[in-house]
Amino acid sequence: MRTSRVLLWTALGLGLAVIYFPLLVVLLNSFNADTTFGFPPTRFTLEWWSRATSNEGALHALWTSVEAGLAATAIALVLGTMAAFALQRYRFFGRNPVSLLIILPIALPGIVTGIALNNAFRTILGIDLGLLTAIIAHATFCIVVVFNNVVARLRRMGGNLEEASMDLGATGFTTFRLVTFPMLRSALLAGGLLAFALSFDEIIVTTFTLGTGMETLPIWIYDNLFRPNQAPIVNVVAAVLIVVSTVPVYLAQRLSGDSASGGRL
Amino acid sequence: MTALSAFFYRKPKLRLGFLLSAPLLWLGLAYLGALAALFVTAFWHTDAFTGQVVIEWSLDNFTTLFTDAVYRTITFRTVGIAALVTVIDAVIAFPMAFAMAKLASPRAQRILVIAIMTPLWASYLVKAYAWRSMLSGNGALSRLSPGYGVTATIITLSYLWLPYMILPIYAGLDRLPDSLVDASGDLGAKSFRTFRSVILPLTFPAIVAGSIFTFSLSLGDYIAVKIVGGTSQMLGNVVYDNIGAANNLPFAATVATVPVVIMLVYLAAVRRTGALDNL
């Protein structure tokens, strides 16, 4: 038993080391004076950081990402919550296909979702790609994230308090406003944060659904990855993303709180 | 307002209908509709001169896909890479998830879950790019580096999707009562026997849930391949090139049906394990 314990801890430690090593390399390279990123770095500089803060393209792309993320999250919150109530509180014919339909956008490869929507917008509907089409695409695969969080919370909270509220004479709307919603709030926040993060990092679906000439941050990174004189700035943006992404993860984890595993995606 | 509320209260079917309407309209129309249209487009073709889509039914695209040796090789390579990535991730993730769920204190568990989730949101591209720079000639792993190619692709994809495997397995192990493991030990089972006869069967749905992500994400990837894959292509690259450079949307649609069919078969096969409730 003792040896297996040691082995398991070692596996966990090694695994975490492997997970974090590449991220540390990126952080380190954002200060690396050598533009070819030889390892280990010999000289350090803050030049890339100062150049990145005034990079128009990156800042503009960041704003597009935020807009798309917020809009997609808002849609996903509404649709995901409605679907969660329907599937968690009711038993009906076709319940399993509906739940399959909700997970399908993340269960199918992103490129399929991307090209299917691209084809639907361009060939079938004749709509030009723009920010709106990207938002529609993002919302589609974000629904499941909100859905999972809300279902987990509904399952845990049961229906007793709502029944009590109704017994005491509250209408359905009052019960929702004063009883159900407050209990759901943190699950909604956690789901919303994760949906935003998922949208923010998405590149494959975005490539196929965002209008030409527009860039989200991942697309900006991709476009500049192989340009030698932009690569150091990409490293800075990457380093910022690594550090900043800990915030939503930490918050979502605190908010979904109940079980450590609840609301992981 | 009160009357409306009371009306809804008396009609649960109507309430359900209201709750389902918007999500079903969105996913049914926007998503399933688009998937269906994609499948239809796969039977069309483009005009060789104008590049416009010609609405004319034929199986030519599918014939090309199945008879051309290049596409067959790419399909087998893609499925092979996706399967290998899934197995590698499961083997690495299980002991990690086990240590997290069964050995760590509740406080440490929270921190570890955050530690696993953080890189999940730290830009996909950044991580793929980090591997490129590490595997490069003067990178951090240059002495061990296999160079850019299939091996580098497998390493990078396994790295990218590892958290997607750890988290469901962790959740599955977290739900597995300790008493079952103890009971197995009390009845004389050695560690390995307990693992094989108690732990593995009970956490199998969680492993399958994780495999849906690792497998599907690998099947559709084309960016990691472009960054570290050298000259070897995957299905995603064929789709991407046909939509962009070649401007042959119908053929891209045809190629895209391959991962869809594979995933639908996979989902149907794993439904009975209860994996879909573990997502």
Describe the structure.
The complex is a heterodimer of chains A (265) and B (279). By secondary structure, chain A is mostly helical. Chain A contains eleven helices and no strands. Chain A has helices at residues 2-29, 47-53, 56-89, 95-107, 110-124, 131-157, 160-167, 172-201, 204-209, 217-224, 231-256. In chain A, α6 packs across α8 (172-201). Chain A is globular, with a radius of gyration of 22 Å. By secondary structure, chain B is an all-alpha fold. Chain B has helices at residues 2-10, 12-41, 60-67, 69-103, 106-121, 124-135, 150-175, 178-186, 191-219, 223-228, 235-243, 249-270; strands at 45-46, 53-54. Chain B has a two-stranded antiparallel ribbon with strand order 1-2. Chain B is globular, with a radius of gyration of 23 Å.
**Secondary structural class of chain A:** mainly alpha
Q: Rounded to an integer, what's the Rg of chain A over CA atoms? A: 22 Å
Distance between the termini of chain A: 33 Å
Number of strands of chain A: 0
> Mean pLDDT across all residues of chain B, rounded?
86
Order of helices and strands of chain B: HHEEHHHHHHHHHH
Write the H/E string of chain A, N to C: HHHHHHHHHHH
Question: How many strands in all of chain B?
Answer: 2
Residues in helices of chain A, as a percent range: over 70%
Oligomer: heterodimer
Q: Distance between termini of chain B? A: 38 Å
**Biggest chain contact:** A-B, 98 and 98 residues
